[in-house]
Amino acid sequence: MNEIYPLAVPKGRKLKCEVCEAPAERVCGACTVTYYCGVAHQRADWASIHEKICQLLIPLRTTMPFYNSEEERRHGREQLLQRQKHLIELCYKVAQKYLFEGKHEESVPAALHSLRFRINVYGLNSVQLVPAYLLLSEASIGLGHIVQAEEYLSQAQWTVLKSTDCNDEIHSLLHRNLGLLYTAKESYEEARYHLANDIYFASCIYGSEDIKTSGAYFLMANVFFHQKKMDVADSLYKKVTDIWHTFLDQHIQNQLRARKKPADILAKELENDTGLDEPQEAEAVHILGTILEIREHTEKGKPEVTVKILKTVAMLDYLMMNLSKAHELAVKAYLLSKELPNKEDESEALRDLIGLIASKNPVTLKASKFFSSQGH
User: Fold this and answer.
1) Segment holding 26, helix H or strand E
2) SS3 assignment, position 103
3) What is the distance, to the nearest Å, from the Cα of residue 71 to the centroid of all Cα atoms in its chain?
4) CB burial readout 353-372, b (16+ within 10 A) else e
5) CB 169 within 8 A of CB 205
6) Contact (CB, 8 A) for 356 and 252
7) What are phi and psi of 102, to 5 degrees?
């Protein structure tokens, strides 16, 4: 990072920090188009998103070249727009992934980039700004900055109220963040109201049994958990587990079929594909990991409940190539499945899963052969 030389700055141009918009004193030495108030914010931005987009910013923040014809100018504008839209989505997904991982501070610079690119493309009053406001609100809640979170949510709500083309997805996201805010404030009745609306709007888009709706059920379950209403919380955690089990098991079954047809090119392409992007994988890890922890501490008398979440997390770990962890959880589920009344079907499915994991991890092959022999 280099210091800014005042004489080199065009007269009347005010350079602002990328993170806080304070007067800038330094510039990124790699792209030379991104400015910071100091080293701390440069490092924060680099760790969050700038390393990924540094060179992509150069054509967006430098003067467009001279074009010989109107067609060339139109093509240049279209290319610029596509680059901005690409960065909107990239920054949004990076920030979203950080949030699911609990890295709230790291998510802020990426979310700010997404917001600024949205403003450049869609204008200050567009409903397209709402998802970025909501990312910043969620990050603020995670950091304990409740007042700032309320400000971002107010901006999001006002934008939605003024919009005539706000879709169900935006409504779902808005209610989800309001649910998070009221949960953080321990206003559980208001939280339940907004999360119920989140479930409704998400179900309208994706259906009630989709993984994209499961996050709303999970947050609602957390509210009941905080209220010590364990029966309701338990039923919602079970629904979330069932949704993810069904989704992940489809991929496992595809791979089991692929093992029987090794020459099948399409089957090979299905290997180690979770069907999820990085933010969705981070969300799955967070949701299922939390439910597993709760189950292991509260469901000692219900082995069937614990077996299912153990198996679901094992399938996720396998598809994400966390093979040692996947094997550990699958074995744990298999041993616990021996306590189930109708244990044979579940035990057989778990033996198949252990064998599949072992096929990618020779270290577990011996154990896999042992569990296979237990089925005879």
Assistant:
1) strand 26-27
2) coil
3) 40
4) bbbbbbbbbeebeebbeebe
5) yes
6) yes
7) 80, 15
Which among 120, 149, 147 has a CA at the least distance from the CA of 133?
A: 149
Query: Sign (positive/negative) of CA torsion 217, 219, 220, 225?
Result: positive
Residues 165-184 pLDDT 10s: 889 999 999 999 999 999 99
Q: How many CB atoms lie within 10 A of CB 120?
A: 14
Pairing mode, strands 35-36 and 26-27:
antiparallel
Rounded CA-CA distance 372/106 in Å is 45
Please state whether the predicted TM-score (pTM) of the whole model is above 0.70.
yes
Name the residue among 20, 56, 57 with its Cα closest to residue 41.
20
Structure-token pair, residue 189 = 């009745």
Cα 338 from chain centroid (whole Å):
35
Do 304 and 338 touch, CB atoms closer than 8 A? Answer: no
pLDDT in tens, 297-348: 876 667 888 999 999 999 999 999 999 999 999 999 999 888 877 767 788 8
The encoded tokens of residue 334 equal 């298999």
Cα separation, 101 vs 107, in Å, equals 10
